[in-house]
Every structure is written in structure tokens, then in C-alpha cells.
Amino acid sequence: MTKREMFEAIVNGEMNDEIKEMAAAEIEKLDKANEARRNRVSKKAQENAPLIDRIVDEILGEEPKTATEIAAVLGVSVQKASALARAAAKAERATQVDVKVKGKGTQKGYTL
To answer: Domain coordinates of the chain in residue numbers?
Structure first.
């Protein structure tokens, strides 16, 4: 039975064991594909991993650092530094805290 025949049978209200088996097999294929997609590491994530390691190993310490300070050391934009620091915090390799910056208000800071 083809997928089209299965879908036409469902639309027509025909339900038999063959349709149920095929639907179960299709669900299994979807689950397998979704699991593979979930476990795949993107190209960008692979490129960013060394930068996150550098942030955690070299830049962060006991004193909170803002994304601006991290960006200056890494030589990347503040937005990228902020995203990398958030990724480190999400991976529980760093801690995100609020830091008061004179003239700018409260910003996110990152520590070990």
C-alpha cells in the first residue's frame, strides 16, 4: 500500500489492520528522523564551541564581565559575545548575574 492509498482510505473512513500498521511504521520513521535531527550539532555550534571554551577558561572569573568586556577580548561583536556568554550559562559553565554599569543601568554579567 502506498502512502497515497493509505491517506485516501483514511479520508474515506476505511480503517483496517494494513492501514494501522502502515501508519505505525510512518510514525516510527518520523520519530527516528526527529531524534537524529535533535542529536545533530549544527555547523555554527561547532564553530562557536572554541569561543565558549575561551570565555569560560580565560575571560571569566569571580568578578562579573559584561558582553562588552567579553567582546573586546575576543574581538567579536557585542551581540555575538552576548550570545556566546548566554550559551555558556545555558550549559551551566557560567552564571548570569545583573551588573550595574555607570551611565548604562543594569546589564547582564557573567561569572564562573
So the answer is: 3-39, 43-111
Fold classification of 43-111 (topology level): Arc Repressor Mutant, subunit A (1.10.10)
Beta-strand pair 65-66/105-111: antiparallel
Which residue stretches of the chain have pLDDT < 50? Answer: none
pLDDT for res 101: 80
pLDDT for position 104 = 82
User: How far apart are the C-alpha atoms of 82 and 108, rounded to whole Å?
Assistant: 9
User: How far is the C-alpha of 64 from the C-alpha of 60, rounded, in Å?
Assistant: 7
65-66/95-101 β-pairing = unpaired
Q: How far apart are CA 64 and CA 66, in angstroms?
A: 7
**Alpha-carbon distances of 38 from 15, 47, 112, rounded to whole Å:** 33, 18, 28
